Amino acid sequence: MSKNENFVFQALHVIAWVIFVGLCIETGGLVVNFIVSLYKPAFVQNLYQKLDLSEMYQRSEWAYFSMYTFILTISVLKAYLFYLLIQLLDKLDLSNPFNSLVSERISKIANCTFSIGILSFIAHQTAQNLQHRDYVIDSLDQFWVDSEAFILMSAIIYVIATIFKKGVEIQTENDLTI
Amino acid sequence: MPIIVNLDVMMARRKMSLNELSEKVDLTLSNLSILKTGKAKAIRFSTLEAICKALNCQPGDILEYVDDSES
C-alpha cells in the first residue's frame, strides 16, 4: 500500500496544509499586532480577531505583555506542530515506515504538543490569577481553552513515539540480519 | 563484537570472489559485504547453510568467538 493510494493520508496531508496555512496567518497577524502595539499603544484596543486588551494595557503593561507573549508563543508552537506533521506525512513511506527520521519527527511532535499543553495551562492559571485582581480576561480564554487536551494528546503521542523507536530498533536489526 | 566472521578467509582458501559467492548463495553483494565486514547483527540458519554448502566448509570455519576481555 503506497502513500498515494491511501486516500486517508492524502486527505490528512491536505487538511494539515490548510490548517498550517491558517495558523501561519494567525501567527503572522499576532506578530504584526504585537510590533505595532509597541509603537502605537492605541492599537491595543483593536488587535487580531477584534481582541481588546486596552484596559489591561492601561492597568499594567507587564500584564499585557506577559499575556500577549503567552498567546504568541502558543500560536507559534501550534503552527510549528502542524509544520512537523506535514514533514512527517511527507517523509513517511508506508512500505518501510520504521526509520529514524519518522521516529525523530514523532518524538518532536510529542515534545511540541506537550509544550503547547503546559504553556496553555500556565497561561490559563496566570489569566485566572489576573482575574482575581479584577482584570477582564474573558476574551483570552479562546487561546488556551484546550490545554488538558494537548497534554493528553502529548502523552498518547509519547507512547506511540516510544513504540515507534522500538520498531525502528527491531527494523534495523532485521535489516542487518543476513 | 565477540563473534567474528571469517568469510574472507574461507573465500580466499576456496579462491572464490564475492560475486561468485553471492550468485551461489543467492544473496545480494551488499548483504554479503555486511556479513564480511562484521556489521551483521544476526545470520539465518538458511543463509549459513547456503554459505557452508557454497564454500564446502563448517560453520565453525566461518564463525569464531573471541571473548571481549581477551581482545
Which spans of chain A have pLDDT < 50 for at least 5 consecutive residues?
A: none
Give the total of beta strands of chain A: 0
Mean pLDDT of chain B: 90
Q: Give the helix level of chain B as a range of percent.
A: 40-55%
Order of helices and strands of chain A: HHHHH
Overall strand count of chain B? 2
Number of helices of chain A: 5
Spatially, the strands of the biggest sheet of chain B line up as 1-2
Elements of chain B, N to C (H/E): EHHHHHE
How would you sum up this structure in a few lines?
Chain A contains 5 helices and no strands. With 178 residues, chain A is mainly alpha-helical.
Task: Please explain how this structure is put together.
The complex is a heterodimer of chains A (178) and B (71). Chain A is mainly alpha-helical and 178 residues long. Chain A has 5 helices and no strands. In chain A, helix 3 runs antiparallel to helix 4 and helix 4 packs antiparallel against helix 5 (147-175). Chain A is elongated. Chain A starts with 6 loop residues before the first helix and ends with a helix. Chain B is mainly alpha-helical and 71 residues long. Chain B has helices spanning 7-13, 18-25, 29-36, 45-55, 59-62; strands at 3-5, 63-65. In chain B, strands 1-2 form a two-stranded antiparallel ribbon. The termini of chain B are close together. The mean pLDDT of chain B is 90. Chain A binds chain B through residues 172-173, 176-178, and chain B through 27, 31-32, 34-35, 39-44, 47.
How is this fold's topology laid out?
The complex is a heterodimer of chains A (178) and B (71).
Chain A: H1 7-39, H2 54-59, H3 61-91, H4 100-132, H5 147-175
Helix pairs in contact in A: 1-3, 3-4, 4-5
Chain B: E1 3-5, H1 7-13, H2 18-25, H3 29-36, H4 45-55, H5 59-62, E2 63-65
Antiparallel strand pairs in B: 1-2
